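Format is chain and fold; as here:
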Amino acid sequence: MEELAEPKISNRRLVYVVAIYLLFLFGTLFLALQNQILIDEILCALLFDVIILSVLFITMIRKRVTNRLSYAGMSYRRLFVYLLIGWIVTAAGIYLPEFMTPFAFVVYILASHLDDVLTMGIALYFNCMFCLLCGTSMYVLYCYYLVILVNSFLAQYLKNKNKSFFVFAYACVLAVNFFLPIAFSYFIYAKVAQTTVLYAAVYALLLVLFVWLLYPALLRMDDKANQTAYEILLDDEYALVADLQRYSMAEYLHARRVSELSSECAAEIDANELACACGGLYYRMGKMLGEPSIKNAVIMATNHCFPPEVIAILAEFEGKERLPQSPESAIVQMVDALVTRLELMDKNTMSSSWNQDMLIYQTLNEFSNAGMYDEAGLSMNQFLRIREKLVQEGITV
């Protein structure tokens, strides 16, 4: 097969990219016209939009290529919806009391979908455009800056499934969003109005309720979207799976066996089972695509919007170009190597469970001693548990 073209942005993504550009341009125009900004200033603000958005998309692409963006973060449709909410909130700030523009809500909405860097960057840009076009004082800018900064940290912390310190985190959300507007109001007026205290209290309480009740729901939406995307890739009706079956039924059966065993081993050490299942199924896709096989497999996976974790597994195929960098990648490499070696052995010899167990021990110990898993973040205890799991399963081919 001829070498594939370089990774490309799908037409659907391109539509959302254009929509996001238009959203920012219209949002900026709305703020500017509401505050009677001069035409040359409007043009400068629109130029800011183009530059910042270009940097945003370059950053997202870079994070995706280097596997530092969550699979949910690759959904441009959801990103468009959340950015639309962000602009609605920003525009609403024109009609709300001073210091009460709910940028903190935007932070938690974005954080449910993006990492801390992108969340903070986008929210701060909303803040800058609002303060610039609405002519607010520098104290308002500083207040919103700190609100966004602290809530971005708290939003990432609240993604943690360990709920030991959640009460403390909610208390921080309440305290920060209540205290900051009052403090900065005092900096401006050297006094604090009762209405400011009341507004700040209502704002902070509403935010705590949002973070407690709705933020986890937003996170679950992304988890569900991730699981659905994995399930599509594992479905026999999926186009690439059908292509693999047409290419070679033997390769397909091998891939299915690797996929199943990898998922079981991942469950043994609480690793990402779905990533291992997908990585195992498509691990040798490069054979079907031809040389350069690893590059072509990565390009194909990228063009089909595979999760970054799976793309990383394919890029680390057999440790040829890069040693496994994650437990999931190490698991798939182990299982594929074992299944491949067993397929090459005489079936009569492998009919003995003792012979098969010895082959598993020997194969995995060889790779471990050669340093194959040194960069995978795999502890010795995890390695031993995976090895024992494979022995207990009794690999049949």
